[in-house]
Amino acid sequence: RTCNFNFFMSEQQLPIVEIIPELKKILAENNTLILQAPPGAGKSTLLPLELIKEQWMAGKKILMLEPRRLAARAVATRMSQMIGEEVGGTVGYRVRFDNKVTNATRIEVLTEGVLTRTLQKDNFLEGVGMVIFDEFHERSLNADLALALCREVQTVLREDLKILIMSATINGEQLSKMLGNAPILTSQGRQYPIEQYYLANQQGIGIAVQMAAAIKRVLSKHEGDVLAFLPGAGEIGRTSEILAEEFTNVKICPLYGDLTQAKQQEAIMPDPNGKRKVVLATSIAETSLTIEGIKVVVDSGYSRVQRFDPKTGLSKLETIKVTKDAADQRAGRAGRLGPGVCYRLWSEGTHQHLIDQRVPEILDADLSPLILELANWGVKDLRKLAWLTHPPAGAIAQARQLLTELEALENDKITNRGKEMLNLPTHPRIGHLLLIGKQLGLLPLAADIAAILEERDPLKRDTGANFILRLESLRQWRKKENTYADKGILERIERLASSWRNIFKTAVDNEKPNEYGAGRLIAAAYPERVARQQKQDKYRYRLVNGRIAKLNDHDTLVTEEWISIAHMDGANNEAKIYLASPVSIENLTERVTQKEVVNWDSNQGVLVARTESRIGDIIVNSKPILNFSDDQRIEVLCGAVKAEGLKLLNWNDEIYNWQARIASLRVWRTEEEWPDVSTHHLIQTCEDWLPAYLGDIRKADDFKKLELTGILASVIPWELSQRLDVLVPKQIKVPSGSMVALQYFHDGRDPILAVRLQELFGLVNTPTINEGRTKVLLHLLSPGYKPVQVTQDLKSFWENTYPDVRKELRVRYIRHHWPEDPWTAEAMRGAKKRGS
C-alpha cells in the first residue's frame, strides 16, 4: 500500500521544512538527535511523514511517543488527514484501551506507557527504525523510563536504532550532555508575535471567578477563539457555569483527559455553526495538538500534578504554579495561526520568580510501576541504567516494599504474579486487585472497584467514606435508577469498568455489591492500609503500617471494626479517611502471621512472653507463653538493661569508686590492658557479664537484689584483678592505725586522702600508691573534719606551714594535743589532754 506523501506538501509549507534536509543528514550519521522547535513548526506531524521515506528506514516503523492520549489521537488524526487517509492506515495510534493500528501502519503514535510494554515484549524492537520522543520537556516518568530502555537497546542490541528527542522549551545543551553530547538542531519555526498582559492575582477570590472575569474582558476586546488554562476539571466546571449564565452566543468547550473522545474533538475543531468558541482546558492543551481558531490565551498560572511522598507511601494531587517553560508553551498556543494575545493571571514581578523548568516526574512520583518494569527487564542495579535524572533511593525502597507486599517481587526478582500485572495497562495496585478478583471469582466486582479507584469520587465527600455507596450508585445508574452521584463521573467509571470486563471476558454485575468482598479486594490493592478500630476512640483506626487514620465524625462506617482504606490524605500525624470498605478478619487469614514475643514491659517493670497473631503492626490476638528459651529471656533482659540502665540496677558508691580505680589505672598504666569499666560501656556490653545471673529475674525488683559488686569483679581478667588492691588500694593505713578511704577519679587525677591532721603525726613523707608512681593528694582536716591544708608534700608542710597551723588549732581545739615537734609526736585518733 502506498500513500500520497505529496498531498500535504502542496497544502502548506510548515517551518520545519527548512531544516528537514539538515536533520536527515544528521540522523544518517548519528543515532541520537535533539530537535528544538517551537509550537506549530510541524515537528509532530510533517516531520515523521518525511522521515518515514528515508533510505535508512528501509521499510521499518517509526514509534512516536506523546505524553497524553488526547495528543496521541490528535496527532495521528492530523497526519492521516495530511496524506488523505483514515487513521489506522499509514499512521495509527495505540493508547490505553484504544488501538487503531493495522499491518499497513508505518508510523505508530503511542503514549509512553504503551512503548514500555512494547519494549518488554520485544527487547530488540524488531521492525522499528526510529523512536521519537515528542514534547519531552514534560519529563514524565514513563518518558524517562522509555528513554533509558531505548538507550540500552541502542547500546547493547541495536546500534542502528535512531532516537529523536523533540521539544519546544527544553534546555537542549543540558540534555545533550546527559546524552553523551548528542547533536542539537534548532528550527526557528513560525511563531507569530504575541502580546502579553499581566493581571495581578486577586487574593481571596477563587480561580474560577478570576478566570471568568478575564475571559469576559477578552471576549469584549479581542477577536477569535479563546483558550483558557485551568488546574483541573473542578475549576473548568465552575468557570463554565459562570460564563454560561452571561454568554449564550459563545460555545464553551471543556477539554481534559477524562472527557469522551467526541467531546475532546468538539473542543479541538472549529464550531460547525461558526460560533465563537471558548476552550477551558487543563495542561493537556500544552501538548502538540493544535486547537483550530485560537487567537487568545488566558492562563490561570496553575496546574495540577500527582506528587508522591515516600514518607507516607501515598500519591496526591497538588495544585502548583506553572514553570516559565510551561507558561511560554501555553502562551505559544495564541500565536500558531497568526498574531495573538496572552493574558496571565499573575503580575510581571511574580513571573520573574517562577521556576525556569518543571521538575522531572521521576523525582516526585510513585516508582512502583517503574521498578516492576525494570525487574522484568532484568535490571538489579538501577545505577547502571543511563538515567537523565536518577530516581531517589527512598522512593525506590518504598516501591520495592510495596511490590513485595503485592506479590509482584520476591527478593527483588519479579514473580509470575508480577509478570501478569505488567500485562495489564494499569498501576500494580489495581493489577493485583483485578488478578485477586479473578482468583476469587469476583471479577465483575473487581472491574467496578478498579474503575472507581482510577476515577474521581462520584459522590460528594459529605456522603461518607463507605466505598459500597459508590458501587451501589454505579450499579443503580447502570440499571437507569435514580442516584445522587455525578452522572458524568459515573459514565467515565463505566467506560473503564467495561474495558476491564472486556479484557477479562466477564459479564456485568448489577446486583447488591458483596460488601466484604469489596473490602477484601481493596485490601489486595492497598495491603498497607488494612486498619483496625481503636478501642479508646471508635473514629480512629490503626493501619497495619502503624499509622493512625480518622473517619469524619458521624460517618456510618464507624460500626465496622476492620476496614480497608482506598483513599486517605498524606498527613504525617493523623490521616483523614476518604474512601474505605468493611473487611472481614476471616478474609485476611492469609495475611495473619504468628510471632512469639518476649519483651520487657517498661511501664509495668515485668518480663512478658506471649504468642501474637498479627497483621503488620496490628495485634489480632495474643496468648501467654509459659515456657520460652533462656536465650530469648537473656536477650530481652539485657535489652531492658541497655534501655533503662541504672534505673534497673543497684549501682552504688562502692561501684563508682571501683570504676574510678580502674579508670585511673587505664590512664597511669597505658602499657597494661585494663578494661573499660565506664558505666555506659558496661551497660551496653551487659550481655558479656550479666547473663549468668539472670536466671531468676522476672521483674524490676529482682534486678535490685543482684549483688553487683561481686558480679562486676568478673569483668577484670584474673591476673589483673590480683594486682588491683595492691596498685590502687581502697584504703591506706595512717600512723594512728586508722584505715582511711581513698577517693579516685575517672580521669586519672591524683586520688585524695582526706585525713585528720593529728592522725599523721610521725609520718615524714606523703603516701604513694601505684607501686610508688603516684602520690596521693592529702586533704588535711581539723578534728571537726574542716579543711586545714591541701598538699602533696607532707615534709614541707611540717617544716614550713605546721607552726602557723598549730597556733590556730590550739585556740580552736584546746582539748587536743598539738605538739611542737610533729616528727616524733604520737599520732592519735581523738582528743588527748595536754601534758598527758
Structural class: alpha/beta
Number of strands: 33
Low-confidence stretches: 1-11
Mean pLDDT: 88
Residues in helix, %: 25-40%
The largest sheet has its strands arranged as 4-3-5-2-6-7-1-8
| Beta-strand percent range | 15-25%
Major β-sheet annotation:
8 strands, mixed
Question: Counting H and I runs of at least 4 residues, what is the number of helices?
Answer: 27
Terminal CA distance: 139 Å
Cα radius of gyration in angstroms: 41 Å
Structure explained in plain terms:
The chain has 836 residues and is an alpha/beta fold. Helices cover 35% and strands 21% of the residues. The protein has 27 helices and 33 strands. β32 and β33 form a beta hairpin. The longest helix is centred in the last third of the chain and has 19 residues, at 794-812. The chain is elongated.
Short structural summary:
This protein has 836 residues and is an alpha/beta fold.
Features:
disordered N terminus; 21% strand; 33 strands; six-stranded parallel sheet; alpha/beta; 836 residues; eight-stranded mixed sheet; single chain
Write the layout of secondary structure elements.
Blueprint: H1 7-11, H2 20-29, E1 32-36, H3 46-51, E2 61-66, H4 69-82, E3 91-95, E4 98-100, E5 107-111, H5 112-121, E6 128-133, H6 141-156, E7 162-167, H7 172-178, E8 184-186, E9 194-198, H8 207-221, E10 225-229, H9 233-246, E11 250-255, H10 261-268, E12 276-281, E13 294-299, E14 302-309, E15 314-321, H11 324-332, E16 340-344, H12 348-352, H13 368-377, H14 393-405, E17 409-410, E18 413-414, H15 416-422, H16 428-440, H17 443-454, H18 467-478, H19 487-504, H20 515-525, E19 530-534, E20 537-543, E21 548-550, E22 562-568, E23 575-582, E24 593-601, E25 606-615, E26 618-624, H21 630-644, H22 653-668, H23 679-684, H24 700-704, H25 708-713, H26 718-727, E27 731-733, E28 739-743, E29 752-756, E30 768-769, E31 774-775, E32 777-781, E33 787-791, H27 794-812
Helix pairs in contact: 5-6, 8-9, 13-14, 15-16, 16-17, 16-20, 17-19, 18-19
